[in-house]
Amino acid sequence: MAEFPTKDAILQWIEDNPEATKRDIAKAFGIRGAAKIDFKALLKNMEAEGELPGRKRRREPEAAGMPPVTVVEITGPDRGGDLLARPVDWRGDGPPPVIRVEARPADGALGPRDRLLARIDETPGEDHPFVARPIRRIAAAPARLLGIFKRDSHGGRILPIDKGEAKQWVVSAGQENGAEDGELVEAEQVGPKGRLGLPNARVTEVLGDPAGPRAVSLIAIHQHGIPDVFPDRVLEEAEAAEPAGLEGREDLRHLDLLTIDPEDARDRDDAVLAIPDIDPANAGGFVLWVAIADVAYYVRPQSPLDTEARLRGNSTYFPDRVVPMLPDRLSGDLCSLHENVDRAVVAVRMRIDRDGRKLDHAFTRGLMRSRASLAYGRVQAAIDGQPDEQTAPLLETVLKPLYGAYEALRRAREQRAPLDLDLPERRIVLDERGKVTSVAFKDRLDAHRLIEEFMVLANVAAAETLIAKRTPLLFRVHEEPDPEKLNSLREIVEASGLSLAKGQVLQTRHLNRLLAQAAGTDQAELINMATLRSMPAAYYAATNFGHFGLALRNYAHFTSPIRRYADLIVHRALIAAHRWGPDTRRDGLSDADIDRLDETGELISAAERRSMMAERDTQDRYLAAFLADRVGAEMAGRISGVAKFGLFVKLDESGADGLVPVRSIGEEYFHYDHREQTLTGGSSGVVFAVGSRVTVKLAEVTPETGGILLELLTLEDHALPRGRRTGTRGAPPRRRLGQEKARAAKERKVTRRRK
């Protein structure tokens, strides 16, 4: 911080900048942190003594349309770190004002959407016209809803953008908050719940054109509450960071470490190297190096950077943007292992034998210099006999040993038999305006698998080291599937004419046998997807329950601290365990980290799920937009799910999921069998089962929600037999109708959750 200014210096600056606010003055003199308190006191004294020209005395807030005591809702921090709010019930002219909140330590942690009863004072001459001093926290805010505003003569309505949500909301005149017809808005319910008719809502924020360029990911970011703006104090800390030097580190710059990433990668947090082991006792074995960006050096416990990274939990990836966990100064620069640049790392040296079994390992804190920044495709092309000017010099000395080590690791993987899912990943390609131009399958190369195997081995080494040193950490946990989900999987498997072992403790090799049965058949993708859905979600925990999917007893995430907070915790644990540096409390695992380890695991596991849902919703909307101009076209697909209300169909070409409503199939009653996952026509006898091939017509597409409605044309290349309803024949007894409706509602929820 600059030297604290004198009164004369302040007055001179104000004379040169007569329109400046108090915050402008503080910024001009570099006032930060705790010094703001003394600086504000100085300005207050100068104001009281009449030394601040043109400053108005504080007025009562009623004069500006604000009551002296009102309810405010926290909107979040501004770029300067001040906590901001808005009045919940604004009746003044123009848009509601922005209010700065002066919270006390006794008020506890306040976050977006918290509501407070607060005393309001006007603050002329400052950035924000009012200041709120909390009296007490009150009940939580009503649930937020996102939708498209449609104006009518009485005000308007909000149409939902959530797939499967049909409820509309009425917006009375005066509650539109300036929203125009067709704009995307955020709103909240007003009035009592449970009333007859459509519920009432008030528009709280106007977000703009939902069809605008790149609006799809913005909808997901807003809808799922993903923090996408860094507070000023976080950016300032990142910008002030300086590159780490060699002091206290092992010099690894002589090693031919290099990075292998996607073509468009910006952050490179892992580098690899394989060297044939010269030890005669380990003939055919390798020495492997995995070097990971030393993010812990820059992101210290309880710093603004750390607080923000923990809140975000991870980076979130969309087809058109990335919402990073760390500011670009770190993620794209100081922590990224760019070519021919010295970078701080935490590295692990591992020895494996010819069959890929790890013999020993050791961690070090070092300084490396990447030999090259390569893309997966270029590395694979070089190995396949087509090196280019960048990969040719590295082919014999660096790339071929990497692939030799990968072959050894692959043999160890086959022996371990982790879950071997084969799920093709689709890549959505956008043009400069954000419009989808194509949907294609991503290439799955040995270069990808090589990096995955190196990272898995390094993650195992990190977990084993910290367990041996009795250092707290966050494990990556993946538990066994529960019996109910396994029964559902067996029903789908049997409906597809395949089998899954029963009556024994389930192991990944049993599932791999099933996947091998399906490989090369029309059911392959369906069985892989059903197997994935039967698995519980992986999560982070301070207790080690093992990793079922990888068939590993000890596993922790260590290799991506730029984009995952869990990895940063593991890095800090390694620093503390090895006592690297003169003061490991500075960037090692802190007491606060340890005390809230369980809480952190829950927090970042929830953040991971939030990102996955946002990414999936974005993909659904982009796929719907891609198909929007093809309504009426015929497409091939496969039934991927069955529910009482209809059939879910995955389209072959795009991978999009659509719904065939049961009402559109025929007039007859259809019997739903949950165990067999079938719908059977009551009079025609036609059976719709998971895995069946179908031809459909694209009937309706709603890009705003990602919804796709389909019309069924053929089943297994045969025209549909048309049954008809005759009286009550084939229908369930009247006393069961309520039960059937309840079951359908339950199935609808389960189906959404599985998608």
UniProtKB/TrEMBL annotation:
GO terms for biological process, alphabetical: mRNA catabolic process
One MF annotation (Gene Ontology) recorded for this entry: exoribonuclease II activity
Major location (coarse): cytoplasm
EC numbers on record: 3.1.13.1
Region (Disordered): 721-755
Keyword Lyase: no
CDD domains (alphabetical): S1_RNase_R
Sorted UniProt keywords: Cytoplasm, Exonuclease, Hydrolase, Nuclease, RNA-binding
Localization terms from the record: Cytoplasm
Record domain S1 motif: where: 632-713
Keyword Cell cycle: no
Coiled coil start-end: none
Compositionally biased residues, Basic residues: 721-736
Job description of the protein: 3'-5' exoribonuclease that releases 5'-nucleoside monophosphates and is involved in maturation of structured RNAs.
HAMAP family: RNase_R
The protein's name in its UniProt record: Ribonuclease R
The species this protein was found in: Rubellimicrobium roseum
Gene name linked to the record: rnr
